Every structure is written in C-alpha cells, then in structure tokens.
Amino acid sequence: QVQLVESGGGLVQAGGSLRLSCAASGRILSINAMGWYRQTPGKQRELVAIIISGGSTNYADSVKGRFTISRDNAKNTVYLQMNSLKPEDTADYYCNANVLGGSAGYQGYWGQGTQVTVSS
Computed over its alpha carbons, how large is the radius of gyration of the chain? Predict the structure, then answer.
C-alpha cells in the first residue's frame, strides 16, 4: 500500500506564492512519474504539471512560466512552486504518483488533496 500526503495549501493574495509538497510512503520500489492536478466544483480534474523520473516536465498552458514542479527522488517527494498566483488558480490540488510496489506493475495513487485559495 502506498500513501501520498500533501501539504502547503492555504489562502494567499493574488500575485503571491505558495509551495505544495507531496510525500509518498509505503511499499515503493520505483516511481516513474509524479504530478499535480487540480479540481474546482463542477469541473473535471485537470493536469497542472507532471515530472517523470528522468526529470522531464510538462505543464498546463495556464501555469507555464508561473509554476515549477520538482522532485526529490531520495525522499519520494514532489513539489509545486506556485508564483504569481491568480484567483483562477483557486482549486483543490491533488498529488498523483505512478508507483511500482511489487509484481502488479505500476499503479497510480492519489493524495487526499490540499486547498489553494487565491483572493483578488
């Protein structure tokens, strides 16, 4: 079993910054991708940023140039540095990891979510 624990959400004014963290623990042999998604009421969960084991990253167009994803492989932790925040960034942010824990192959896991609120 694998657990993802997120932290770092909160309330910030427009133009401000927040840093989200997500630590994976449990039966982990390898993690090939970790990412951040966000969701607002009535909308589908959308990809914000993803980073694969080799370090390649991909971002949603709406956050390019403002958000930076990084990971510490030794700690099985992924970070999302969010700068120049806008009210439209307000959402619940979820961490996702694609984990190899045993013979079943890679499986996807989700964190419980952390709320980010950006006031105008």
Answer: 14
